[in-house]
Design a protein that fits this description.
Layout (H helix, E strand, L loop, with lengths): L3 E2 L3 H14 L5 H11 L5 E5 L3 E10 L2 E14 L7 H17 L2 E6 L8 H7 L25 H12 L2
Parallel strand pairs: 4-5
Antiparallel strand pairs: 1-2, 2-3, 3-4
């Protein structure tokens, strides 16, 4: 399984488009702007395969500043047919190796979506640590409909990338 670190504009755009297709509330403009801002950081990395990608960061907890941890911020498969398991495993193993290289004490594999990462996580042997709860703060915060990225987005992305 080929896994590579995303550094090319075409890879970033592929990741944004894959996430937009899978998660309708995903804001492609905000994601690309964040990716551009983070691209210079050696504490953020994006990896991809032919059909999936992963974003991870290295950080410290405010109460344990001497201990690095690696957080998987986003894990996305462009397929819904169940055939991307090998890609997802390759990505998680890659980020695990990167986290060790960065001196991290832990790799946190969480989920901001409704996807169940349990089957994937159990294959690499983590311990289950906590539950998270989300409290909606507004009744108007319903998910928006998916929007077509279209030509305007690509023009903006190509211009923003040169900054």
């Amino acid at each position: 399984m080929r896994v590579w670190r995303v550094q090319e504009r075409s890879d970033v755009l592929w990741c944004v488009c894959a996430a937009q297709q899978k998660y309708p509330a995903f804001d492609a403009y905000a994601a690309l702007a964040w990716g551009l801002a983070m691209s210079a950081s050696d504490c953020v990395a994006i990896w991809r395969t032919e059909d999936a990608f992963l974003i991870a960061t290295v950080s410290q907890r405010f109460y344990l500043p001497e201990e690095n941890r690696c957080d998987v911020l986003f894990l996305c498969s462009a397929r819904d047919d169940g055939r991307s398991a090998a890609s997802l495993m390759a990505l998680v193993r890659t980020v695990r190796d990167w986290a060790v290289e960065k001196g991290c004490a832990s790799l946190d594999l969480g989920c901001e979506t409704d996807e169940d990462l349990g089957p994937l996580a159990r294959r690499i042997g983590p311990s289950w640590r906590r539950l998270s709860y989300v409290i909606p703060l507004s009744r108007d915060s319903a998910l928006s409909e998916p929007r077509d990225l279209g030509e305007e987005f690509y023009k903006w992305a190509n211009t923003a990338w040169r900054v």
